[in-house]
Write a structure and sequence with these properties.
The protein is α+β, with helices and mostly antiparallel strands. The protein has helices spanning 2-17, 23-32, 69-75, 126-130, 176-181, 196-208, and strands spanning 78-90, 100-112, 119-125, 140-145, 163-165, 171-173, 193-195. The radius of gyration is 46 Å and the shape is globular.
């Protein structure tokens, strides 16, 4: 009896004298039992998260088509120089749903679609007149006009590009827009005004270009 009791007391004393695990060992054991994502990744608030770059849609850019003398000449149904002799406003009437402006020219030099010396009257939509495409009585101009539409209306080709003032010496004057468009032309390039005969020659040559 005494021997078995002694052995029990010895075992109990050995258990009580055994070293307890340190706090570090307990922490290591806890880390081994914890999923990696809970302790290996930094806290979200500790590091800034960069914002994604904005996605900018890209579209093909087409440069505007160049408008030069060949394009203007080929699009025109009438090309002539003359003096404005009359301007008349014509309200919309039966058979004509649009209000128009009738402009009459005394043709001086004809290049296409007109006859020298004739009184030629064109009809222009009043909206273009209100937008700035105007004439005045007594004005001398050289015009490139579109072929008349089904309603009998026309206007200068490419707006101001198809209209030129003529000075008292009979020379065709170029605006800044004309100078930019004609800078590569072998006859007109670099000039601010040319004789009407030289301009007519350049128009006929441009009309034949492909």
């Amino acid at each position: 009896m005494f021997g078995r009791s002694g052995r029990c007391l010895l075992a109990l004393s050995l258990l009580m004298s055994a070293p307890l695990p340190s706090s570090g060992q307990t922490h290591s054991a806890n880390l081994r039992d914890t999923p990696p994502t809970a302790w290996q990744l930094p806290h979200i608030g500790e590091f800034p998260i960069p914002e994604p770059a904005p996605v900018v849609p890209r579209f093909p850019v087409r440069p505007p088509a160049r408008v030069g003398l060949p394009q203007i000449a080929r699009a025109a149904g009438m090309i002539f120089s003359g003096r404005v002799t009359a301007i008349e406003r014509r309200p919309a009437a039966r058979g004509q749903a649009l209000e128009t402006i009738a402009v009459t020219f005394r043709v001086e030099d004809a290049i296409r679609g007109a006859t020298p010396g004739e009184n030629l009257t064109i009809s222009q939509w009043i909206g273009l007149w209100s937008g700035g495409q105007r004439y005045r009585v007594g004005q001398r101009v050289l015009v490139f006009l579109y072929p008349p539409s089904k309603l009998g209306l026309t206007s200068s080709v490419a707006g101001p590009m198809g209209r030129f003032d003529i000075d008292s010496w009979g020379r065709v004057l170029f605006t800044a827009q004309h100078l930019s468009a004609f800078q590569q032309d072998p006859v007109l390039g670099g000039k601010s005004r040319v004789r009407l005969s030289d301009f007519a020659l350049a128009v006929r040559r441009a009309s034949e270009e492909e």
